[in-house]
Write a structure and sequence with these properties.
Number of helices: 6
Keywords: Membrane, Transmembrane, Transmembrane helix
Radius of gyration: 26 Å
Helix content: 55-70%
Protein name: PepSY domain-containing protein
InterPro entries: PepSY-ass_TM (IPR005625)
Structural class: alpha+beta
Shape: elongated
Strand content: 5-15%
Largest sheet: 4 strands, antiparallel
Order of helices and strands: HHHEEEEHHH
Pfam family, one: PepSY_TM
Length: 192
Amino acid sequence: MTESQKRQQQAKVLRISRKLHRTTGALLFVFFLFISVTGLLLGWKKNSGGLLLPKSYKGTSTNLADWLPLDSLHKNACRIVQDSISPELSLELERIDVRKDKGMVKFVFADHFWGVQLDGATGKLLHIEQRRSDFIEKIHDGSILDFYAGTSDGQIKLVYTTITGLALLLFTVTGFWLWYGPKRMRQNAANR
């Protein structure tokens, strides 16, 4: 291959890279905007003063032997949700977060973004929390679409993360070539 053909080949690869980079960026602009903003918020959630991630409150005892049975705590959390937030809300649990070191148990509900922190020993309410960080996380990873569409196996999230992950990989490769390709072409021209 002659020098002229090599240069033409490098210029062709550069044009293709530029077109892929520009087209992918234009098509996925909104997704990347959401991913970047929500990623920033998630990175700062512990330093948000309770705005994004609720503070974990302390109960009266860290000794599990002093705690009420989990089913009693669960019933209490459900009663609090219905009495304090809305009787219409689902009581299906996403998870129970036992914080032995804080003497607290947190009930996080699946079908809405609310949680309840109870004293493990007394069952008294420590805090009702709106789970903003969970909502932001679902936007970040695309599972918010599964949440509202009611899909059970995260199919939309899988497609979303595959597309955005592959696009980010493509951006990395084409972005590197858009930076390095012209340098290489100038260097080859200077060596002639």
